[in-house]
Design a protein that fits this description.
This protein is α/β, with parallel strands linked by helices. The chain folds into two domains: 197 residues, 3-Layer(aba) Sandwich (Rossmann fold), CATH 3.40.50.170; 103 residues, Formyl transferase, C-terminal domain (Methionyl-tRNA Fmet Formyltransferase, Chain A, domain 2), CATH 3.10.25. The protein is built from eight helices and 15 strands. A seven-stranded mixed β-sheet has the order 5-2-1-6-7-8-9. Helix 1 runs parallel beside helix 6 and helix 5 runs antiparallel to helix 7. It is elongated and about 70 Å long. It starts with a strand and ends in an 11-residue tail after the last helix.
Length: 320
């Protein structure tokens, strides 16, 4: 099967490497996003997919806009049986979808129709899901609305972060894509329409998503800490300065110094016990602070933060 591979970030890399290792697939070319400035020096750098493609001596194409006429001519010249597309970063115009014999096959990091959109892994963790997976679909003109081909399901670990789950799902998806392509070629796979009534959405992350609402329960806040890593992270304010906070929920009644339930302690209130720092959250739950990074400073442990700040009784996170 002659394939054009279309993708950009690290999530797409395991599938590209896996397909390159299979003798029954030919990668005719790779389409990825243009080189972008990254890091403090803002130097142009290759996407992870381009790095792998160059190492494998594959032709690399980087159209600024995939909907430009030149991209359509390129695809016709490459004449693929199939385009594999994973986290490419641009919407594919309808006019390109019919060029490959088997269409454009996407690997999406959720159990569709749940979590359509740009950040399915993050929002699954934020929302407290305990299971997720990957789905291969034939893309259509909609946002992750195409017919489903194959799925694989896995558990989300109770402390697993978004970067950790990204890695596991990317590895899970690689052999699933190969199986999908082989079964498409053999005619042994039956596309299944999605139930659009069951769809949910995972929009692109915004910085504001990381602002901690201390009225949420400690468990909900912890899920956001796991799901919004590494960006935008979870942040609040302390004495008028922004700070990122990491922590974990604790069971009620950790120690005698915890504020009793119903005592009118405001969410966000900080209090200590021995060498530990806690925050009162919604529903009379408590979060143990693990680390704090005040804007412009290095990250420190909770005890270092508390000692340096010389906390006063009743001080709060988020009280600007």
């Amino acid at each position: 099967m002659r394939i054009v591979f279309c993708g950009t970030p690290q999530f797409a890399v395991p599938t590209l490497k896996h397909l390159l290792a299979q003798p029954d697939f030919e990668i005719a070319g790779v389409i990825t996003q243009p080189d972008r400035p990254r890091g403090r020096g803002q130097e142009l750098s290759f996407s992870p997919v381009k790095q792998v493609a160059k190492a494998a001596h594959l032709p690399v194409h980087q159209p600024e806009k995939i909907r430009a006429p030149g991209a359509q001519e390129l695809l016709k010249q490459l004449s693929p049986d199939c385009v594999v597309i994973i986290a490419y970063g641009q919407i594919i115009p309808a006019g390109l979808l019919s060029i490959p014999t088997y269409g454009w096959i996407n690997l999406h990091a959720s159990l569709l129709p749940k979590y359509r959109g740009a950040a399915p892994i993050n929002w699954a963790i934020v929302n407290g899901e305990t299971r997720t997976g990957v789905t291969t679909i034939q893309i259509d003109a909609g946002m992750d609305t195409g017919d489903m081909l194959l799925q694989r399901e896995i558990e989300i670990g109770p402390t697993e972060t978004a970067p950790e789950l990204v890695l596991r799902l990317s590895e899970l998806g690689a052999p699933l894509m190969a199986e999908t392509l082989r079964r498409l070629g053999a005619g042994t796979i039956v596309p299944r329409a999605q139930n659009h009534a069951e769809a949910s959405y995972a929009p692109m992350l915004k910085k504001e998503d990381g602002r901690i609402d201390w009225n949420r329960s400690a468990g909900e806040i912890y899920n956001r800490m796991r799901g919004l890593a590494p960006w935008p992270g979870t942040y609040t304010t302390f004495r008028g300065q922004a700070c990122h906070v990491l922590g974990e929920p604790v069971s009620k009644g950790v120690g005698a110094t915890l504020p009793p339930s119903g005592a009118g302690v405001a969410p966000g209130t900080l209090f200590g016990e021995k060498n530990e720092l806690f925050v009162m959250c919604g529903d009379a739950t408590v979060l143990r602070v693990v680390a704090v990074k005040v804007e412009g400073r290095k990250q420190v442990s909770a005890s270092e933060f508390a000692n340096g700040a010389r906390l006063k009784a009743g001080e709060r996170f988020g009280n600007t």
